[in-house]
Amino acid sequence: MSAAPRISAGHKLRFDQVRNAWVLLGPERAFMPDEPAVEILKLVDGERSTQAIAEDLAARFNAPLETIKADVDTMLADLAARGAIKL
Amino acid sequence: MTDFPPPMGLILELTHRCPLQCPYCSNPLELERANAELPTETWMSVLDQAAEIGVLQVHFTGGEPLSRRDILELVAHAGAKGLYTNIITSGVTLDERMMGRLMGAGVDHIQLSFQDADPEANDMLGGSPGAFAKKRAAAERIRDAGLPLTVNFVIHRRNAGRVPQMIEMAEELGAERTEIAHVQYYGWGLRNRAALLPSRAQLENSTAVVEAARTRLSGRMVIDYVVPDYHAARPKACMGGWARRFINISPSGHAMPCHAAETLPGLSFPSVRENSLADIWNRSEAFLKFRGTDWMPEPCRSCARREIDWGGCRCQAFALLGDDHATDPACELSPDHGVMQAAVAESEEGQARFEFRKMRKEGLLF
Predict the structure, then answer these.
(1) What does the buried/exposed string (b/e) look like for B107-136 if buried means 16 or more CB atoms within 10 Å of the residue's CB?
(2) Residue of A8, A12, A83 with shortest CB distance to B84
């Protein structure tokens, strides 16, 4: 997977002041992504490839690229199956 | 006292007026009239408060929410407060002009209901000739506007065999999401239960169709499936548990944990005209009454699933057993579970006709 994922139409990633947390809102659903997932989602812009997203995170968090890439792919595939991300 | 975690969703029943007359309508039997509806400024204040207390999504429903003249203003206001806006509509008045205006107001999502995949059956059930064609046109408008489309089908014994055609139609319309939702038997649905409740074989067939379609359409279309309680072994966590996730507001401004809660005895539901949403959520007697597990009798109280299904549905317990504290009879651990089978047997006689929803005529008693 190296295509550029994007957040599906009708979905919005936003910071909720009341919960002090990021939320991904979609049609009759709300996802509460954990911290690693939030870092990934913030980089999902329809332009960056999953490879580029993984490289960015690996550099910033000083972590092995292969592990990060696998995490990115798993997380995005999960949200894609639920309709929140288009791969 | 620390406040309870904030509500996720706000369901605004803006009006009970509707161009359709579906016999399973979830509105109460006693429909509220136009002159009882809240004015625009009160709905605006409710939206402001909702954003402040942490509501994430607002569902504009009814009746037909597009019947409210201030719908565009309300959607725009909610969006400006950062709330995700969802309109739940019959689509019959969603013409080109309204679609353009809703986009202008910044609507995030529209859920469009169909009564059937068969045009004639669709129009008969809604009591509105020509409705199907208008709904199809509305679906195309929603897609053309670039919004994601959710189509909703309500399932009962007369259309359960057409679930495959419904899913096919949803695909053809380019829906991202489809709801195949069996009737929930409250309000008009409960009144018409004998005419609507599917047999176990019908339910199992529809479940198999949905499961196969989910596999086939994975990643392309999400199918949400809602089953009727009457063939279940365990109750549903109604509304995600009493007053845990949602605030529902009736056209005249009564705040309730669910749209059917006014059927419960001895509870008075606070009005948003006189109470803040924060007080309603955190302190009102009605919201606290069945929140959590303290109210539970056995077999719920010691059940391992008590924080999964939260005792099921209070309205169903009261409607079927006359006791709003009882374990939902949908649960096979309920001593009254037999009432569910009795209802299935009654509907399987297949004799019942249904009654279309309607407003009671003023000044007429019956």
Answers:
(1) bbbbbbbbbbbbbeebbbbbbbeebbebbb
(2) A12
Phi then psi for residue A85, to 5 deg, are -130, 140
Residue of B nearest to A19 (CA): B54
Six token digits for residue B145: 């506007």
Q: What pLDDT, on the 0 to 100 scale, is given for residue B362? A: 46
pLDDT at A1: 47
Q: Is the pLDDT of residue B365 over 60?
A: no
Is A30's Cβ below 8 Å from some Cβ in B? yes
Interface of B with A in 27-56 (CB under 8 A): 52-54, 56
CA distances to A20, A65, B41, B191, B193 from B74, in Å: 26, 47, 9, 33, 35
Using CB atoms and an 8 Å cut-off, which of residues 308-347 of chain B contact chain A?
none
Partners of A23 on chain B (C-beta within 8 Å) are 56
Contact list, B221 vs chain A (CB under 8 Å): 83
CB contact under 8 A, B108 and A12: yes
| Helical ranges in chain B per DSSP H | 40-53, 71-80, 96-105, 119-126, 131-144, 163-172, 187-191, 193-196, 200-216, 277-283, 285-289, 306-309, 314-321, 338-348
Confidence band of B347 (pLDDT split at 50, 70, 90): confident
Whether A52 contacts chain B with CB within 8 A: no
User: Among candidates B302, B300, B336, B304, which has minimal Cα distance to B318?
Assistant: B336
Global pTM exceeds 0.90 = yes
Strand bridging mode A85-86 / A29-31: unpaired
The interface pTM score, or ipTM, of the predicted complex is: 0.90
> Is B168 within 8 Å of chain A by CB?
no
- Are B176 and A9 inside 8 Å of each other by CB? yes
Over residues B53-70, mean pLDDT: 97
* Interface contact A27-B109, CB threshold 8 A: yes
- Calculate the average pLDDT of chain B: 94
Residue A28: predicted pLDDT = 85
- Chain A residue numbers with beta carbons less than 8 Å from the beta carbon of B146 are 9
Q: Are B90 and B131 in contact (CB under 8 A)?
A: yes
When mean pLDDT is compared across A6-20, B120-134, B247-261, B340-354, the lowest value belongs to B340-354
